[in-house]
Amino acid sequence: MFVSLMVFSLLFAGRAICGRFEEEKDEKDYALHYLTQYHYISPTRSGNHNATKAIENFQKFFDLPVTGELDEDTLYQMNKPRCGLPDVDVNGERFKRYATLGKWYKTTLKYYMTYGDDMSHAHQARIMARAFKYWSDAAPRLNFAKTNNVGAANFRISFGRRAHAGVSGERQCGHPFDGPGRVLAHAYFPSDGRIHFDNDERYTETGASSGWWFWKKESQSLLAVAVHEIGHALGLKHSNVKGSIMWPTAKKGTPTLHSDDINGIRSLYG
Questions:
Q1: Are 110 and 129 in contact (CB under 8 A)?
Q2: Strand 155-160 to strand 108-113: parallel, antiparallel, or no bridges (unpaired)?
Q3: Which residues contact 16 (CB under 8 A, 6 or more apart)?
Q4: 246 annotated ligand binder
Q5: Are 260 and 217 in contact (CB under 8 A)?
Q6: Segment (H or E) for 146
Q7: Which residues form the signal peptide (predicted)?
Q8: Which residues, other chains included, contact 185 with Cβ-Cβ below 8 Å and sequence gap of 6+?
């Protein structure tokens, strides 16, 4: 009996060690994928390819203790729902305050949209109009109007899952979504005009959390995510200013533009 218990204990301990080893391997694999996707590990030959430096740059960007290790705080930040665009340039360098990439050379712009599954079309249209208004209020020369003619649109807004295209006739997107959580949406810089939302996410107007533990239900703020992605489509990159709408990770509640966002959009459109 004692021998049987000892054998069982050793088998259980062995499985626990193997399980922890696999978990650590999965964490490292995910972290390397994350650091590459968001350019902390450079997509170019000349940029940063040192994983420790990449982790340090990530920690600096998100104002975490700089350890160069995949510690609990770092992994927690990496697992937050967020935008799918890179945080830093191709050399893995940190952006300071707002940064821009391209602009529209006209200020009256039209958008066409298709719809996600979570709210009525009318509700989603109202949210999107409200999201565009954030930017026209900040830069009054900007003027946005919804159009039902996709050929006349500067911005094309769509919802898709995993490997996705966009509005009818649009080519396949080169950046597939990853299912619920993590990447919520992405957009293309001027003057491409594509704005894509992950239809596997659960969206409400301003996001919510209800229940607890296994029964906890989360929804993302379509308004906040839309304001952020429209910022990209207008030419704003991610900012490392934590209170800004162009901060990479998702926010719930009614969004507000930080002075960093306002300074950024006005640097482009006055």
A1: no
A2: parallel
A3: none
A4: yes
A5: no
A6: strand 143-146
A7: 1-18
A8: 83, 84, 195, 196, 197, 198, 225, 226, 228, 229
Q: Name the band, by pLDDT with cuts 50, 70 and 90, for residue 10.
A: very low
What does pTM read for this prediction? 0.87
Is-catalytic flag, 69? no
CA 109 to each of CA 124, 167, 206: distance values in angstroms, whole numbers, following the listed order: 19, 18, 25
Is 39 within 8 Å of 84 (Cβ atoms)? no
The answer to the question of whether 72 is labelled as a binding residue is no
Q: At what angle do helices 259-269 and 222-234 cross, to 10 degrees?
A: 40
CA–CA separation, 183 vs 270, rounded Å? Answer: 31
- Does 56 carry a binding-site annotation? no
Cα distance between residue 192 and residue 92, in whole Å: 24
Main-chain dihedrals φ then ψ at residue 261, nearest 5 degrees: -65, -45
**83 a known binding residue?**
yes
Q: pLDDT digits over 39-59, tens only?
A: 999 999 889 999 999 999 999
What would the two tokens of residue 252 be? Answer: 């719930």
Bridge partners of 143, per DSSP, are: 108
| pLDDT score of 96 | 63
Token pair in block for residue 103: 């602009």
Structure tokens at 212: 């607890």
- The residues, ordered by sequence, that sit 6+ positions from 261 with a Cβ below 8 Å of its Cβ are 98, 138, 231, 236, 239, 244, 245, 246
Is 49 annotated to bind a ligand? Reply is no
Contact 196, 186 (CB under 8 A): yes
Mean pLDDT of the chain: 90
